[in-house]
Amino acid sequence: METYGLCVPPITGEISVTQLVEFIELSQILGVSHVTFYDLRVSDKTRGVLGYYRELGLLSVNPWDLPHYISSDIQDRGQTAALNDCLYRDMGRFTYIAFNHMDEFIVPCKEKLTFEILESVQDEDVAGFCFQGFSFDTSKSAVKNSETQLYTQRFTSRTKAPIDELSRCVVSPKKVLFLDLNTISNTAKNYYTTRHMEPGIGQMFYYGKCNNREWACGDSLEDHTMEKYREELKIRFNATMSYLRHYGLA
User: Fold this and answer.
1) pTM of the predicted model as reported, rounded to 2 decimal places
2) What's the confidence (pLDDT) of residue 147?
3) Where are the domains of the chain?
4) d(CA 110, CA 67)
5) DSSP 8-state code for residue 58
6) CATH code for the part of the protein at 2-246
7) Which are the contacts of 237, defined by CB distance < 8 A and separation ≥ 6?
8) How far apart are CA 183 and CA 170, in angstroms?
9) Which among 111, 163, 198, 201 is least buried, having the fewest CB atoms inside 10 angstroms?
10) Closest Cα partner for 121 from 135, 134, 131?
11) Spatial distance between the Cα atoms of 135 and 44, rounded to a whole number of angstroms
12) What CA–CA distance (Å, rounded) separates 151 from 70?
């Protein structure tokens, strides 16, 4: 059994190649061995980049073809249904499964690998671990390292207070029956619990426009946690981008 998998909500259209590569490479550095994507009509270029990683055995891409009569009305592209599909498909494969968007990362504060902190606090009665979310507002934050394409290294100012909507969870899949993106809704046994992780152990970092209440978005602080991944991420990112450019995918 593999240790740590990641399920991503449905994606659509054309995704920036640099963002996609950074997400996949950094997720691997954080300890993810396999990522599962749901393809809701992504562009040929995006599908080509995903195909490169799929051939390496690092990710799966499942088609997400919603019936036309509900596709425009269903909330968040059927996100909850996709994530639970991913949970059921992978529950026998991984010890832990994380669930987050492509602009989000569950990051340990002291260790390098996310699942290491789960192993250190594991309890037989715990079905999952939920991490407080903080926003690095890429529309407002001062860019300290503008020479790099890596957005996780460019932006270092985040919200001081956690944002409830950005909470993300990692589960022990056989202990969970149903989940939403930021909560574990139903566990396999009534006595199973959810552990809410202290920010000093690990946090969820979101990179994008902060759309929450002004009090949450306005008060910020400098956070350099991601710098510990900079050199390894830069090497992996540059190598992959060079390959993709050679074959006309970037």
Assistant:
1) 0.94
2) 77
3) 2-246
4) 45
5) S
6) 3.90.550
7) 18, 21, 22, 25, 149, 150
8) 10
9) 198
10) 131
11) 30
12) 35
